[in-house]
Amino acid sequence: MSRMRACDHCGHDFHISRQLCPHCARPALYGNVFAAEDPDEVAALRGRYDEARRAAQARGAGVLPAVESFETEVSNSRAVVARPAGEFQRLSTGDNEIYATHYELIEAGVRFPSGNKWDALRPVADESLFPYYRDKIRFAALTLDCQGLPGYGQCFLVLRTDMIAHRASVYEENSVRFFSKRFRPGLDDEPRLPRGYRATWGERGKLSVAKLAEKIDASTPPGAYSGILLRPGSASEDDDFVEVHVWGPMTIRTLERVIFDKPTSRTARELTNRANKQRMAKFGVTLG
Ligand SMILES: [Zn+2]
Questions:
Q1: pLDDT one-digit tens code per residue, 74-101
Q2: What does the alpha-carbon distance between residue 191 and residue 193 come to, in Å, rounded to a whole number?
Q3: Ligand 1 centre distance from Cα of residue 132 (Å)
Q4: Distance between CA atoms of 159 and 284, rounded to whole angstroms?
Q5: Distance (Å) from CA 30 to ligand 1 centroid
Q6: Cα dist. 1→20, 142, 147 in Å?
Q7: pTM for this entry
């Protein structure tokens, strides 16, 4: 995985974490998207995708068309962030409230690490995937039915595709879990993580086929696709989903819709009252 890129304008190399070319100062954003566009990543994903299609074809009549139907659906999937109701309430107070990253909150002194089992691995995994720009990345999951992962909060914030498509990339699964299984330490030039497991937003259907085609057969109804793409586990390490990495800030205006894990809960009923629905409509957000 190359960590250097050439400036689109002056042609000189610099590190992908930079937001400006250090030589000519022209904008150079979205290191995660640049990493997903790396020709070695693209070729490796293409190989996995082609293999998944070949295997589907070999499983019998009707399997490949079902896999193609799944790909079409996932190519129109959305990104969803699950957060506690309090975070949604804060964002909903106005469009100057920003959804911050874990590292920004720690840096600002308003949060400290919770000491949970992810804390030891997360910084190493994030630094490996997002070298020197991990504080810019927000995490989400691909969804077909606007449902998210309730382990992270009861509010499912569905992101507006036109606000994230240019700065989002997707990853095979929870990147910390993937890292814990597949990271290869060393000082040689070989990649530390296997290639072909990250993709641009536009290629999310292909990545999902490479990962999930084996779970689809000729009789799989389209209604089952959402549960194949995103399946909450009994604990967060058991969640199975395609992870979305979004570079940069988000506000209430980045959201398209907000729904609740348990729509009949007291919190959900309070937050989806008529006044709130009208207030959110001003920001273009559908509530409930
Ligand atoms: Zn330049």
A1: 999 999 999 999 999 999 999 999 999 9
A2: 5
A3: 19
A4: 12
A5: 15
A6: 20, 24, 33
A7: 0.95
